[in-house]
Amino acid sequence: MYPCNVQxxxxxxxxxxxxxxxxxxxxxxxxxxxxxxxxxxxRHSLEFGAVSAYSADNASVNxxxxxxxxxxxxxxxxxIIAANCKCHILHNTVKxxxxxxxxxxxxxxxxxxSEFSSSASRNETLKEFFEFVDIKSxxxxxxxxxxxxxxxxxxxxxxxxxxxxxxxxxCYLYFLHNVLQEFDKxxxxxxxxxxxxxxxxxxxxxxxxxxxxxxADQFFGSRVGQILRTMDxxxxxxxxxxxxxxxxSWRVTYAQILIFRIQIFFQNxxx
Length: 271
Prior knowledge:
The chain is mainly alpha-helical and 271 residues long. The chain has 12 helices and 4 strands, in the order E-E-H-E-H-H-E-H-H-H-H-H-H-H-H-H. Strands 1-2 form a two-stranded antiparallel ribbon. A two-stranded parallel ribbon has the order 3-4. A hairpin with a 3-residue loop joins strand 1 (2-10) and strand 2 (14-23). Helix 4 packs antiparallel against helix 12, helix 9 (168-191) runs antiparallel to helix 10 and helix 10 packs antiparallel against helix 12. The chain is elongated, with a radius of gyration of 24 Å. Residues 158-165, 252-257 and 262-271 have low confidence and may be disordered.
């Protein structure tokens, strides 16, 4: 299911959004997508000559160098800009960096969600636990044998003597929670209805600078510091290199390729 949406500027209302149509396309071929867009624009008395940019996800069918939707549009209007989805770039940046951590935080979040999303009785039991303790205590009460594996690694750990204290996986969890707030802010700004192409660079640069500052200041939230102080030196030594690798892994993807692509985008925009 494809939506065909337009963003335009009105002297009376400012930046506006308009949904032209939805259409189904099981083939997902560039010629079919281009044909549908062309038909919808024609039906609404719009022309490719008035289109300034094409925005879609970053799949090759949309922005490939030879036979993509964008290339077919450029054949009709050479001034059309490839306004790739910057939200995907932010998501992919984190996706590439996450495996550098020794604990699968994403798997934990998904498993916890699945544990409660389809069971009303589990939800009620969890609510009862929250009146006195927290979600970690709920899984501790299940015992190691009945607890799902990825959650078991999170709540039953070997790096602390006390099972009720924080573990290295919890340190990773709070670390990501702190860092990803900056990515979340950027994505919400990019997804706002009033965000225009001239603001994209500032949004992306702001995310980059914020994360760089956290890395330079070695500040990843007070909870991370508190947990590290409860661990022995061996566990602490495991966290530091993983944290460094997390930033190194997205440095090339984000700081170099991303900024280069956005700079090219605005060079084309100004010209």
